[in-house]
Amino acid sequence: MNEHISIDDKLKISIKRMGINGEGIGYYNKLAIFVDQALPLEDLEVRVTEVYDNRAIAVIEEIFKPSPDRRTPFCPVYEECGGCQTQHFDYQKSLEQKRDIIIKSYERYIEKKINENIVKQTIGADNPRNYRNKASLPVQNIRGRNQMGMYARASNKFVQIKDCPIQNKLINQILSTIIHLMDKYEMDALDHKTKKGYVRSLVVRVSENMKEAQVSFIMVKRSNRIGDLVEELIRKEKNIVSVYEFINDDLKKAGYFHDAGRLIYGKETIEEKLNNQKFLLKPEAFFQLNTAQADKFYKEMKRLANLKKSEIAIDAYAGIAPVSHYIYDTAKHIYAIELDKAACESAKLSLEENHITNVTVLQSDFKRALSGLKEKKINVMFFDPPRVGLGEETINLIFEFKPKRLIYGSCNPSTLAKDLNILMKEYDLIETVPVDMFPYTSLVESVSLLTIK
Q: Considering the entire predicted model, what is its pTM?
């Protein structure tokens, strides 16, 4: 335990920078103090809530000198919900901080000094509100009324949400209609106290450009009222073209997709159009949650790769293969590697729909896929891994193949920097471009180009 401070101590500190979770970071006797909703350049009195050897957590008691970039949050449940972390911060300034978070991660985890000019200005969103094209929300029956909401950050407290300002407006409308119809048809959400009810969660995805909607009911058990409810739902909400039912009765597991779904209305997929190409999306298939920013993200990948018609590329962690769709016309051949079966099926459907013939989808992990490609000369590898990053095993496989260029799409500056520290034994880091995929949150996405030494 730290000797300098104790829980409930009140400290006066200045906030120096923003942390990776959107909190402000100040110092007291050289000890880092993490303060939720504090902003750089603010002078505060804070109260300590947790103490560790190398840091402390505190809450704001009083702001002596507020930041000129402090804003009033536009969501009525911002304080309770925790889904967004930076609504109290000027949007343009938050873009600067996201770039700074990447620079600080490089300073911390990369042994070689990196010129900060390598990290470009963050590509912001033209419209930073109502951008989420998919909502996955738990529902509960509380005192006889069905409600949708979220669980507060680091808590099991249920926060009711009626209209989320970062979700697509059509999603909010459809969710509101579903909750009303659940009440009408007495197809209730799960009551966690009595264990009665049918519906655990609702998942609604919309295609921004094609205006199609897909609804998935995540059920504890089947209800014979769902047919009547869906019949009225599709009459009221004309954009809905696909409705699924998933049964997930294991209350110890997350209340979303578990077993194979049952199509109860319409098409198996909804159609999205991006880069003048069609993407056919099943409920479980991963697709970037911000359609407009996804377009910028993939275009940056393509620009940095600078592919030639004679080159062969690998699209690893491919998902439904959006990267392959963007780069196919500049490469000789692409191998899209993805482990998830549903994502591979969606990728193949979309590639066929767009008449793309020089992409081979491999349902496999990276190691097994590469073992079958040993005879191929791979020129460029694209990566867009989950938050845990690439890891040493994958990087060692990259070193075996030694492609000329690597394009690394990242959603976690810390794991990116740790991976780069290893990759830079064989590669030079040329450029990192932050892309704000999730406005008003602490999440930081980026695309980096590395070339072989």
A: 0.93
